[in-house]
UniProtKB/TrEMBL annotation:
Belongs to the thioesterase PaaI family. Keywords: Hydrolase. Pfam families: 4HBT (PF03061). InterPro entries: HotDog_dom_sf, PAAI_dom, Thioestr_dom. The keyword Hydrolase applies. This is Hotdog fold thioesterase. Residues 51-128 form the Thioesterase domain.
Amino acid sequence: MPIWKKPTDLNQLNAANQGTAAQHLGVEIVELGDDFLRGRVPVDQRTRQPFGLLHGGVSVLLAESLGSIGAYCASPEGHNAVGLDINANHLRPVTSGWVTGTARPVHLGRSTQVWQIDLVNEAGELTCVSRLTMAILVQR
């Protein structure tokens, strides 16, 4: 049974990123399942730090983008989702290719949601794990 409470499709989700930091860094939403959202970011000149590795902040941007989009889509009509807290543990460096993140809810409450976002490299190896807490607010 899908967790999504708002109409969602990949084209709509990617269009919402137009003109944002996520678009500037090349984030793409690539899959929407019944209870998960998947996206990716390239490891290139936009996203590497000076030592040639994927910048940790880009990993966090991907994680927060996926968790925020998921939380918004899983919240009732008339509600927004805003970030309260995010943490990330960087486990393995990435120097090229794509990093793919999968966001799944841990808790879908009335006023808060918690999302787990796991990032992997092209070999499927875990590169970063992140946990995001979102506030669910009535739109004004």
